[in-house]
Amino acid sequence: MLLSGAAMTACAEAWARTSFGRNKVRRRLIPIVAALAWIASAGWFLLMQFALGNSGCIYGRPKRDRDGRASLPSTRHRRRVGRSSPSSRSLTRHWLQIARGEYASIGAFVDLEQSLLALGAPDALVAGCRRAQVQERRHAALAADLVERWSGARPRFVHEASPTITTDLARIAAESYLDGCLNEGAAAAEAAVRRDGVTDQQVRAVLDVIATDEAEHAELAWTIIEWAVAVDAPTTIRALESARARTTPARRGIRRPFWMTTARARTLGWIDPELCRRVHPDIVAAAEARLSKVLESEASECDARDTPDCGERPSDHHSFGCNVEPDRLHDTVGVRVPG
Q1: CA distance 34 to 5
Q2: How far is CA 278 from the centre of its chain?
Q3: Alpha-carbon span 93 to 55, nearest angstrom
Q4: Three-state secondary-structure class, residue 60
Q5: In the predicted model, is pLDDT for residue 337 greater than 60?
Q6: First-to-last C-alpha distance (Å) of the chain
Q7: Average pLDDT score over residue span 284-304
Q8: Could you report the per-residue pLDDT of 179-221, keeping only the tens digit for each?
Q9: Binning pLDDT at 50, 70 and 90, where does residue 246 land?
């Protein structure tokens, strides 16, 4: 802001030194032009604060298309009159972004469930995806409750992305590692850290639910990886090695407004980018260590069977255990899901 304002002021002064700007009347315009330059710079700065406040990570498992691109649902939300303080506007945008990510995760687990069904996956894995859908729907509803609390209006979500059902076991394994083990594992850790500093009881309860459920989703992703390795070790291991070799930056978080201090953001449960960067290395290290154990275990089994290629082998897929109970929760949340 300072640089842009100073640059525009310098341009105005340079214009004043030209033959066109030596006129007395025109010279009187220089302070006005300089003031307008600073006002425009300040307005641009505030606009960027608003825009960056809306950007952030996808909070939950991302809904991906056939090319692997993640998408978020559109929102229909109108703030009611009387809820226009800077704090309420910022908190509305913050929890609206979270609600969009949680809503997108419903479709992500629907796609995963259908893909696992097409591959003949164990019943426990399919049931885990169904349970995760209900949990993500609940997360979206809880975040929408907070949006309504601070804006006076409840948002509605519309996700027009088409279903993405794949029988590519390598892609399912790689996405389970990146989107499940890493992304949802980080979401669980961040929610737990944020919960500990929150003073608002409603926000604390929401973060407690999210931290518990996202950790369960990360465990579901690990179980899917173990099953995929057992079904087709060479293909799955190559995909996992490739996924592990990819640079996985920290989740972006949601940039807080310039007037909000770090201490204040902590009491409000804000997803601060600094928090995401602090949690990220531990999550990646733990995930890589666990993945190495899975791959080493499979390599040991290959050596024991004296099958260097470790190709696809017959197995009772339904014998795989899963720490997710197969029951489905009753859906009592207030977020409308198309279809």
Answers
A1: 8
A2: 16
A3: 9
A4: coil
A5: no
A6: 47
A7: 85
A8: 999 999 999 999 999 999 899 999 999 999 999 999 999 999 9
A9: confident
* CATH 1.20.1260 given to domain 55-319: yes
Strand partners of residue 74: 158
Strands 63-64, 74-76: parallel, antiparallel or unpaired by DSSP? Answer: unpaired
CA distance 198 to 17: 57
pLDDT tens per residue across span 126-135 = 999 999 999 9
Q: How confident is the model at residue 37 (pLDDT cuts 50, 70, 90)?
A: low
Domain ranges of the chain: 55-319
Question: Which residue type occupies 45?
Answer: F
Work out the average pLDDT over 22-43.
60
Distances (CA, A) of 6 to 15, 17, 36, 42, 288: 14, 17, 12, 12, 48
Distance between CA atoms of residues 336 and 157, nearest Å: 7
- Cβ count near 201 (within 10 Å): 8
3-class secondary-structure state, position 177:
helix
Residues in the chain, how many? 339
Query: How far is 270 from 253, CA to CA, in rounded Å?
Result: 9
119: DSSP letter: T
Cα 331 to Cα 35: distance, rounded to the nearest angstrom:
57
Instruction: List the structure tokens of 32.
Output: 């006005």
* Pairing of the two strands 156-158 and 70-71: unpaired
Q: Vertex 178, ends 175 and 183: CA angle to 5°? A: 125
Q: Which residues contact 45 (CB under 8 A, 6 or more apart)?
A: 1
What single DSSP character describes residue 257? P
Alpha helix stretches (DSSP H) within the chain: 2-17, 24-27, 29-54, 86-118, 123-151, 169-175, 185-197, 201-231, 233-245, 262-267, 273-305
Report the half-sphere exposure of 314 (CA within 13 A, side-chain side).
Answer: 0
> Model confidence over 99-143: pLDDT tens digits?
999 999 999 999 999 999 999 999 999 999 999 999 999 999 999
Could you report the per-residue pLDDT of 68-85, keeping only the tens digit for each?
A: 888 777 776 655 544 567
